[in-house]
Amino acid sequence: MPAARPWRLPALLLLFLLLLLLSCRAEGDGSLRPAGPVRQSPPAAADPVPPTARTPAVRGAEPNASRPAALPKGGVAAGGRPRSASPPMCTGQTEIKETFKYINTVVSCLVFVLGIIGNSTLLRIIYKNKCMRNGPNILIASLALGDLLHIIIDIPINVYKLLAEDWPFGVEMCKLVPFIQKASVGITVLSLCALSIDRYRAVASWSRIKGIGVPKWTAVEIVLIWVISVILAVPEAIAFDMITMEYRGKYLRICLLHPTQKTSFMMFYKQAKDWWLFSFYFCLPLAITAFFYTLMTCEMLRKKSGMQIALNDHLKQRREVAKTVFCLVLVFALCWLPLHLSRILKLTIYDQKDPNRCELLSFFLVMDYIGINMASLNSCINPIALYLVSKRFQNCFKSCLCCWCQSKDLLSLEERQSCLKFKANDHGYDNFRSSNKYSSS
After folding, report:
1. I want to staple 183 with a disulfide (CB 3.0 to 4.6 A). Which of 50, 210, 233, 395 is the partner?
2. Residue 37: is its pLDDT beyond 50?
3. Within a domain: residue 54?
4. pLDDT tens for residues 259-315?
5. Hey, what's the signal peptide range on this chain (predicted)?
6. Integer Cα distance of 390 and 407 in angstroms
7. Cβ neighbourhood burial of 151 (10 Å; 0-12, 13-18, 19+)
8. Residue 355 contacts by C-beta under 8 Å, 6 or more apart in sequence?
9. Structural domain count, the chain
């Protein structure tokens, strides 16, 4: 069997992005159509489209998170918040084509099925195989659990919200869904940071990764990751609210980041949210990975002359884990870059007072949808990345998914051989470390 090639996954992601771009132009003028002059909605609205018709929510970076939503005449906001002056008229109206809605629905269903199968299988592999319960894999299991939580709760609700253009789930779910979205992406980001640091520690100080300290420290890391992610997601539950608005003769219930907030902190959070998402939830894991992988490379080059040939198998396993973590970070960057790029461009070059802004808004709307579909893929793609990059995970996935065509004795024999090989490599390294200790003394 040929070895798995890490470049295949980024190539597939780029191909998927190209297909989305082509689908935007599949119907004449694209996925957005002009519909005559429309007066802009009152409170500093970024565009004349109702929130449900613009873009669906995606975990950690909701489409209408940084700009106020439209409250047309007849719209009623919770708490009776005041409305500001109306921006100038927009020369055209943007609207999402039904085709693009169905594309998003198909992608969401694909993410739902693959995500549940892949992440559940990944959790089962780590739970069932004792030899897979090491520090990095426990962090990967935590990451998979966060993705699974997002897939089960958020994706079905977001698909319904997009197709029905209504929010019948009440205020409580309106606050819970973005809260889970933000907590899930926080777990992903902090887990990737912890994995990068763990790989550097594995190379720089071998003794820290042996003995009883490993499970305890990993458990502390996971608890901190979940607690910090939940705390950082609390402003989402506070800021989001449900409003009722009139649009084209219909009253719609909308769940969105409310244009006005009750406290100065929440007003600051609303204004700075897109920059906060970009810096903490995107740039941070990339910067930490680049920093610690640079240190790890320097450390490995420095210690290369002291390595013995007997450690080749052990070092190959360490390199494979490091390559796996790097691939997870790369996949995360490719999946989230389009959405963050759309948000930052919108913040920097979009002017809501420009009467000709609708053409630019149409472009951003297409970018939003492409970014949302790419970001949704990140919830299901980590198990696929592990399958393509790591031979150990590849064998475990095959054994777990194809267990009906193999006997239990054969499976347990394969698992025992894998664990024995793993322990033998660790034992060989322990002998090497002990001999170095006595020779140096």
Report:
1. 233
2. no
3. no
4. 888 888 999 998 899 899 999 999 999 999 999 988 888 877 776 655 544 455 566
5. 1-26
6. 24
7. buried
8. 88, 89, 90, 91
9. 1
Structural domain of 204: 92-402
Q: Per the domain annotation, does 82 fall within a domain? A: no
Which CATH number belongs to the domain containing residue 392 in this structure? 1.20.1070.10
Residues 205, 210, 211, CA angle at the centre, nearest 5°? 140
* Pick from 18-32, 50-64, 365-379: least confident: 50-64
pTM for this prediction: 0.71
Give 19's strand partners: none
Is residue 337 assigned to a domain? yes
